[in-house]
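COURSE: Structural Biology Practicum
ASSIGNMENT: Worksheet 4, Part C
STUDENT ID: 0417
INSTRUCTIONS: Below are two proteins. For each, the amino acid sequence is given first, followed by its structure token string. Answer the questions at the end about the second protein only.

PROTEIN I
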Amino acid sequence: MTATVEGRLDFDADALGAFLGAFLGARLGPDGGRYALTRIGGGQSNPTYFLDWGDRRLVLRKQPSGEILRGAHAVDREYRVLAALHPTGVPVPRPVLFHGGADLLGTPFYLMERVEGRIFTDTALADLPRAERRGIWMAVADTLAALHRIRPEEVGLGDYGRPGNYFERQIARWDRQYRASPSGPVPEIEALHAWLVAEMPEDDGRVALCHGDFRLGNLMFHPTEPRVVAILDWELSTLGHPLADLGFCVMPWHTAPDEYGGLLGTDLGVAGLPTKAEVIARYRAGVPFDAPLLPFHEAFALYRFAVIFVGIADRARAGTASDPEAAALGPLARRFAIRALEVAGAA
């Protein structure tokens, strides 16, 4: 059956349709039903599409075409974590199918059920009534705490990463990714890396399932309630230290509105938004451990995002970025490194 296509595709929609016919064919009905693919925005990493198949509303995620860094764009890991978490009550879409070969789309891909709800990309929540904004951010903190209450070994994720020395391994990983970039050196990233290595706290043994990119734009909220109905974009997830996720979550309080939509300089009280300390306190009330969020954790989050922006700029130059606006994000690599140095007191 021929697909109705909206947006650019880099694969054969009819070949995909023939494959889906064997897997989902019963849903199409005798008249053939509807098969539609729509390219959607969002994440800078893995191309994402709405896929309608008869009465089923699905989402397709695939790796980007072209050369990718080893270990990046791990759609297999995304699918595995969705399958593990869906039965626990942690809000994730229901997984449907994983296809690990490159024969159909040129890359591995997976399907998940489409969840209906709201996604907020503006951390100031300006489109919401003032009275509703605080509740949204408290739901963010509650959801992160719920994720970190999960014991990975109890949901089949005990081998999802290497426990211990998380920050040491992560800093080494992101430094390798940064140095593999064909772009020239960024002095602020170099200085930040040196500070992080020097100030790394001792490993305290805490291990949780870490999302790796836990921020407002990767959460879907109930259509009317301040409640998260789906955590999205699990590509960077692994076993790690929970404070890495928390540092990522509060990043907007350290970046300006023109720096990927931060809150720095916003009058939080007038805007009806919580302070960073209030979000942290809400999270800590929901987890079974007591550990302070240090400048190191927050600077590490900003460092990792700075390296991600380097990769986005590289893909934009190569023409393989999934977002047409990717080229404009390249300069944020340096600016996020500067913000991290400010947090560290090393600017």
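PROTEIN II
(use this one for the questions)
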Amino acid sequence: MLPLSGPGFSLFEQNIPLAIAIVVCSSVAYAGGSTLQHVAVGRLVDPDADNRAMGLRQLWRLIRTPLWLLGLFTIFVGASAHIVALMMAPVTVVQPVGILAVPWAVLMSARIHRHTITRAMWLAVSMTVAGIVVFTLLAASAASEHTVLDPVAIAIGCTVICLAGTSLGLLGWKGPVQLRCLMWASGGSFFYGLSAGMVKATSEVIKHDGFHGMPIFWVVAPFLVLSYGIGGFMVQQALANGPAEITVGSMTTTDPIVAVTFGLVVLGEGVRITALTGVGMALAGIFAVWGVVLLSRYHPDAIKPESATPPEAPRVAAQQNS
């Protein structure tokens, strides 16, 4: 069992530099695992289908696929490291650093699928990374060392995030085809962002003796399980409907924004943030999200369907005239 403390070291003591270093490593594992899972999912779905959402039978086949399981294990390693980092630093600092998974995913996917990384794609990735870096620096400069555990506030915050994530998931299921990957991933990101907040809250709760009997434990524990389960389901649907880079990009952008907002508003980590800092974080977050939107627009998988449309028009017209 992993020791939670030792001579001169404790997972429960704040150590922001070490936490950031751990998250950088976990971002590589997360990008690699997501790319492997995207390849496995791509072998089960029809790329020409209007709606590539997977049913229960396909999901059952998927979870028995060795390549998908390897991706799951890689993600588990990254997620475990991420949880350790959350125990050592505020969620407002740790969560945004995961955006580094985006460039890793772009490089890995280009290597696997042998497509060229265009200038527009690199610009989109740079926008996303730059936005989240600024977001992280602003959050770290005003991060609080104390976490507030209010059962009512946590329950309300969790409910709002769940409703928002579910709404995005519905758009991924029935919305415009070109936006389904982004919407599925964004919905999953809301639940994963919530899970990060729940991990932080849980790590604070279990510091107390007899935490099993505390009402707050029975608020955070169910939401923790729920957010991971539903978030994972939505992410697989996103991988079935588009490239791994878009899924990873959306998750590592929306996820930290949701998690940080939860930490600031619900867990009381924003008590030292000024109005000017808050405006700067909001603008940096918008800049990062816009980078992901551009990545979904200029990715080769998004361009091919559009470029394939004009050549079909003369052929259809000729068939009608004949």
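ANSWER KEY EXCERPT:
Q1: The chain has 13 helices and two strands.
Q2: Residues 305-322 have pLDDT under 50 and may be disordered.
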